[in-house]
Amino acid sequence: MRNLMMTAAFTPAAIGVGDLDLTVFQDAAGQGRKGAEIIARMAKGEQLDERAVYIPFERVTPANADGCLDR
Predict the structure, then answer these.
(1) In a 3-state reduction of DSSP, which class is residue 9?
(2) Helix (H) or strand (E) holding 31
(3) Distance CA 25, CA 9 (A)
(4) Radius of gyration of the chain (CA)
(5) Tens digit of pLDDT per residue, the chain (71 long)?
(6) Cα 52 from Cα 48, distance rounded (Å)
(7) d(Cα 18, Cα 5) in Å, to the nearest integer?
(8) How many Cβ atoms sit within 10 Å of the Cβ of residue 65?
(9) What's the whole-model pTM score?
(10) How far apart are CA 18 and CA 2, in angstroms?
(11) 24 Cβ contact list (under 8 Å, min separation 6)
């Protein structure tokens, strides 16, 4: 690994010029959908079994970075 960069935001330019080898994509739309689903269930009075709900991260590398730009 050449460089290690910790960032809160996806930086496609850094991957494109070779300054970054790997980052992760946080699925904001997926997080919002799941949050709305949970709120709807709670509004109906459903008992939730899970205490935490995890939305998986997606690994972003130079090979797949272009597909993550518009998400």
Answers:
(1) coil
(2) helix 28-43
(3) 8
(4) 16
(5) 555 555 555 566 667 667 777 888 888 889 999 999 999 999 999 998 888 888 888 888 888 877 776 66
(6) 10
(7) 12
(8) 20
(9) 0.60
(10) 9
(11) 57, 58, 59, 60
Tokens (6 digits) for 17: 């010029």
Instruction: Give the three-class secondary structure for 43.
Output: helix
Helix (H, G, I), strand (E, B) or coil at 36: helix
- Report the candidate in 19, 21, 20, 27 with the shortest Cα–Cα distance to residue 57: 27
What are the structure tokens assigned to 49, written together? 């079994």
H helices within 1-71, ranges in order? 12-16, 28-43
